[in-house]
């Protein structure tokens, strides 16, 4: 009797460094691939289909989807900073221009948020990009809202509000965009009003 069958064999197809979600830091990884083989008398003979690939952490042994290799928290942070800069610029632009007071407010808030100053050239080129885009604050925020945590949403409201009110009262264009933000961010109306209320209070202890 001929005994035949199939079994999966695991091999390492790539290794390197990645940010392990379980360890929370950079670790060595192996990208492993499971391939089915046709076996004859229990000996793998003919390679068949690839059953799957996964990333394994060399330290904790955790296994993750292949995409885990590409995850870079530093780049995520950078992208978040750029998005928040765009939020502030779009907020300022709701009345058609970014004036000097608004530029100052954007620079201060960016520094508070990131711990780094925004270069004047970067700010000007970002303003240029925002002006030439056909979108507004709400269309931009609508595009990123799904990736925002409740904390991130509150941050968007805070940055938009402080930028818009940098020069004092909100102008009509500002009002309009700010009012729509609750729906865009899917924040319940009463919570949103409470948030705006808190932001309108002069900060204590200063
Ligand atoms: Zn790990």
Q: What small molecules accompany the polymer chains?
A: zinc ion
Helical percent range?
40-55%
Radius of gyration over C-alpha positions, nearest whole angstrom: 25 Å
The level-1 CATH class of the largest domain = Mainly Alpha
Instruction: Tell me the span between the first and last alpha carbons.
Output: 88 Å
Strand content: 15-25%
Written account of the structure:
The model has no long low-confidence stretch (mean pLDDT about 90). The protein has 2 domains: about 5-70, no CATH class; about 75-200, TerB-like. Helix 1 runs antiparallel to helix 4, helix 1 runs parallel beside helix 5 (about 150-165) and helix 4 (about 135-145) runs parallel beside helix 6. The protein is built from 7 helices and 4 strands. It has helices at about 75-95, 100-115, 120-130, 135-145, 150-165, 170-185, 190-200, and strands spanning about 5-20, 25-40, 45-55, 65. It is α+β, with helices and mostly antiparallel strands and about 210 residues long. The structure holds zinc ion (ZN). Zinc ion (ZN) binds near residues 22, 23 and 59. Zinc ion binds near residues 20, 27, 59 and 60.
């Amino acid at each position: 009797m001929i005994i035949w069958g199939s079994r999966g064999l695991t091999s390492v197809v790539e290794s390197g460094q990645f940010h392990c979600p379980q360890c929370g830091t950079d670790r060595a990884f192996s990208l492993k691939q499971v391939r089915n083989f046709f076996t004859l008398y229990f000996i793998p003979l003919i390679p068949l289909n690839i059953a799957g690939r996964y990333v394994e952490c060399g330290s904790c042994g955790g296994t993750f989807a292949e995409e885990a290799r590409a995850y870079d928290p530093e780049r995520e942070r950078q992208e978040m900073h750029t998005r928040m800069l765009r939020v502030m610029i779009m907020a300022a632009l709701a009345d058609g221009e970014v004036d000097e007071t608004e530029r100052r407010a954007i620079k201060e808030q960016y520094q508070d948020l990131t711990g780094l100053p925004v270069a004047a050239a970067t700010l000007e080129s970002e303003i240029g990009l925002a002006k030439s885009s056909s979108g507004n604050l709400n269309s931009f925020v609508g595009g990123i809202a799904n990736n925002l945590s409740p904390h991130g949403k509150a941050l968007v409201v805070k940055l938009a509000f402080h930028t818009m009110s940098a020069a004092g009262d909100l102008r009509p264009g500002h009002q309009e965009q700010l009012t729509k933000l609750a729906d865009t961010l899917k924040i319940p109306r009463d919570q949103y009003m409470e948030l705006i209320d808190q932001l309108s209070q002069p900060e204590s202890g200063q």
